[in-house]
Specification:
Blueprint: E1 14-15, E2 22-37, E3 40-56, E4 61-75, H1 80-90, E5 95-101, E6 106-109, H2 112-126, H3 133-146, H4 149-156, E7 172-173, E8 179-185, E9 194-206, E10 211-220, H5 226-235, E11 247-259, E12 265-276, E13 280-290, H6 293-296
Antiparallel strand pairs: 1-7, 2-3, 2-13, 3-4, 4-5, 5-6, 8-9, 9-10, 10-11, 11-12, 12-13
């Protein structure tokens, strides 16, 4: 990805991939969800620091370690005890080691055994102050979840986790090429599924800054789970017109800035606006930003 011009039109083909021997970098990640229901506004926010270590294993293979620090969770509907419980469970994922190819396709989860061990340690500690059938059900769900590497990897690649860093837009591009994929969201409406078709293309190259930007647009695609969404909206007591109100994706824009010398992400964002009539609106923002050297010291 080094020997290209500073105009998209001048590109015959470029390959966005890792091009390095090793890379150490801190990032700040944030997720903000704002839900409006019948005029009432609820904000849910997550902030955390991520340390990325990328090591070249051989010509085609990389080891990537993602460590999470300083998780901050803000939601006024969640009690301090619930926040502490969620924080302890989140720590199970605070050290992930992956083997990937140079396009960040994941070959395997390297440290699944250590992750499962951390889970059991968390469960043992939490079980001392959290009891009851629902807690036991949660513990069993977590054990089942972390015993399945494919489920873990799918979760890791979600934008709520490490999906901005481990994004699917590493690929070969021409000036006219558009990369497509489908994404399943569970947080547009509670207990409902929304499928989004993403389309990505190269938008801008800054040769002096050695930066390349890929932009992403999204739209709702089949299958549409309208009955599931209608049921959830109704159960929540949201006022709507059954004759004309339908799920609507008002905005879905993303941007990924890549370092042209290394192929790593410098910053990334996804901004979403979803609505159902006038009385239900959901905005979701995911952001990942590289911290500079001063912040790393």
């Amino acid at each position: 990805m080094r020997n290209i011009t500073d105009t998209i039109e001048g590109i015959k083909e470029l390959d966005i991939c890792l091009y390095l021997e090793e890379h150490l970098q801190f990032y700040e990640f944030s997720m903000m969800e704002i839900t409006t229901e019948n005029g009432s506004v609820l904000k849910s926010e997550v902030n955390k620091t991520i340390h990325s270590t990328v090591l070249k294993k051989d010509f085609e293979t990389y080891l990537i370690q993602l460590e999470v620090f300083d998780i901050e969770y803000k939601n006024r509907t969640v009690s301090l005890a619930e926040k502490d419980f969620l924080a302890r469970i989140a720590e199970v994922n605070d050290d992930i080691i992956l083997e990937t190819d140079r396009h960040l396709n994941i070959n395997k989860l390297v440290n699944q055994h250590q992750i499962q061990k951390r889970l059991e340690e968390k469960i043992e500690r939490l079980a001392k102050s959290n009891v009851g059938p629902k807690v036991e059900e949660m513990f069993q769900y977590l054990r089942d979840f972390y015993s399945n590497d494919m489920r873990i990897l799918l979760d890791i690649k979600n934008y709520r986790q490490h999906g901005l860093f481990l994004n699917p837009f590493y690929d070969s591009y021409t000036p006219l090429s558009i990369k497509k994929r489908s994404v399943r969201y569970l947080n547009f409406v509670e207990n409902a599924v929304v499928n989004i078709g993403e389309e990505a293309r190269v938008k801008k190259i800054k040769l002096k800054e050695r930066e390349l930007e890929v932009v992403v647009k999204g739209k709702m695609i089949a299958p549409f789970y309208n009955d599931m969404i209608f049921k959830s909206i109704k159960n929540k007591g949201i006022l709507f017109d059954s004759a004309k109100d339908r799920p609507n994706l008002d905005k879905y824009d993303g941007s990924f800035i890549f370092d042209m010398n290394t192929g790593t992400v410098k910053k990334a964002s996804i901004s979403i606006e979803f609505s159902f009539g006038e009385n239900y609106k959901k905005t979701i923002s995911y952001q990942l930003n590289e911290l500079n050297d001063a912040d790393n010291n």
